[in-house]
Design goal:
Layout: E1 33-37, E2 44-48, E3 61-65, E4 67-69, E5 73-78, E6 84-94, E7 97-103, E8 113-116, E9 121-128, E10 134-139, H1 144-151, E11 177-180, H2 192-200, E12 204-210, E13 233-237, H3 239-250, E14 255-258, H4 260-273, E15 279-283, E16 298-302, H5 309-318, H6 320-332, E17 343-346
Parallel strand pairs: 1-17, 3-12, 3-14, 4-11, 14-16
Antiparallel strand pairs: 1-2, 5-6, 5-8, 6-7, 7-10, 8-9, 9-10, 12-13, 13-15, 16-17
Length: 347
């Protein structure tokens, strides 16, 4: 029996053959596999994502994160001598002022200037933070986001080593609020046509925004799980989505979070207010076994890295033993893992 008071990072380790880490997205988007797990019985079945409608009921609601990934990785040169530099924009601090990661860091001293995209974008280092990140101010004609769309690359996670040919494949088809450093990957499986199919079947669609930070990929370093400190991320739960969730619950429908980011948004609001209502702010909620869910009834998610906060969240919702069993089953069945991989539905 797992001791919830003494959860260790190593409790969430599993063996994963490297060839099961998906390097490229499938076409069409919804052709990926779908593992369906019954929370009450622990029963596992196997399907395809395009059959998602078969596992939902009229009156259910799917809650999706509409955050859009910023093409935040840019390559340039030092203004002074033309030497190479790479920036990764992490978090906006003010108008055109961002916290960034850069390499090689020794070139990015306070006052250093850099040029990107043949002069379409320039930057000046304002500060060096304790963790080695920098604060940079950017200068360009027009909108910074427009310039990044033109010259920036998607900040793919480090386990994806193949070049992404089409930047839009690391965006959901419903993305609209730019600000994430990584995609809410459970949503990558949906097509516009499938969303229409779901609506026509009486399943409601609601949206929240949570801007995914690179802390999503930050490994848990502390062996004792409860010692881990989560990164903070900005979220918005709009009034129309809050109303949809409350109406769904009142009518006996189920609220299904699409992705851990949607789940964290809803649970953050519920934990803060004791109910679901329109809200916005920052959250560093850390969900792991022992957490009592108040907002969601179901979860659609991808298969996550060993020892990550994301597999811990899934374990909190499904149960520890059931989650580790499901992951072993996914390995046996040769599911595709991580951002471009297959999906799991827990109901």
């Amino acid at each position: 029996m797992l001791d919830l008071k003494d959860l260790k990072k190593s409790d969430f380790y599993y063996e994963l053959p490297e060839e099961l880490i998906a390097q490229t997205p499938l076409e069409p988007r919804n052709s990926s596999r779908l593992m369906v797990i019954d929370r009450k019985t622990g029963a596992i079945s196997h399907d395809r994502f395009y059959n998602l409608c078969d596992h939902l009921k009229k009156g259910d609601a799917l809650i999706l994160n509409d955050s859009r990934v910023l093409p935040a990785r840019i390559y340039g040169e030092r203004e002074e001598n033309g030497s190479f530099i790479e920036f990764l924009l992490l978090e906006q601090r003010a108008q055109n002022v961002w916290e960034i990661l850069c390499r090689p860091g020794k070139k990015a001293k306070i006052g250093s200037r850099f040029v990107f995209g043949g002069g379409k974008l320039t930057a000046k280092i304002l500060d060096v933070l304790e963790d080695g990140n920098r604060i940079a101010e950017f200068f360009c004609e027009g909108s910074l986001f427009s310039v990044l769309d033109e010259i920036g690359q998607m900040p793919l996670p480090p386990y994806i080593t193949k070049k992404l040919e089409n930047k839009e494949r690391y965006q959901t088809v419903y993305s609209r609020e730019t600000g994430s450093a990584a995609a809410p990957t459970a949503g990558l499986h949906f097509t516009i046509e499938q969303l229409e199919q779901l609506k026509n079947a009486g399943i409601s669609i609601g949206y929240v925004t949570l801007h995914v930070g690179l802390g999503t990929f930050r490994p848990v370093k502390e062996e004792k799980v409860s010692d881990h400190k989560m990164h903070s991320e900005f979220y918005v739960l709009p009034p129309e989505t809050a109303e949809l969730i409350n109406k769904t619950k009142q009518n006996g429908g189920r609220v299904v979070a699409v992705g851990t980011t949607s789940c964290r948004t809803l649970e953050s609001v519920y934990k803060k207010l004791g109910r679901i209502a329109a809200d916005e702010g920052s959250t560093d909620i850390f969900i792991y076994p022992g957490y009592q869910f108040g907002a969601i009834d179901g979860l659609i998610t991808n298969f996550h890295l060993p020892e990550s906060t994301l597999i811990m969240l899934v374990s909190a919702f499904l149960g520890y033993d059931e989650t580790m069993n499901a992951y072993r089953e996914a390995v046996r069945e040769r599911y595709r893992f991580f951002s471009f991989g297959d999906a799991m539905m827990i109901m």
